[in-house]
Design brief:
Layout: H1 13-21, H2 25-43, H3 50-73
Helix pairs in contact: 2-3
Amino acid sequence: MTASDLVPVPIPDRVAVLIGSCMPPHVLNAEIEAECAAREVGRFRGPLCTEDRADREYALSALARANKVLAAWNPGLTVRPGRGW
């Protein structure tokens, strides 16, 4: 028997607020920062100029910092960047 891939399903705002109320504020901030950094990392493609490489490295470091906080709270919350990783 093989496990199927889970499809992400959007959750209602009230459910998200309820989930967020159970987490400390620094974990919520780290989750937001990780999502933004992952989106930023996925934005860079192809041959990168020096400034783009520096921006990508900065976004990767922000993602790593946020993931460190998220993994300390719950390892399942860590965020991976999309395309381009």
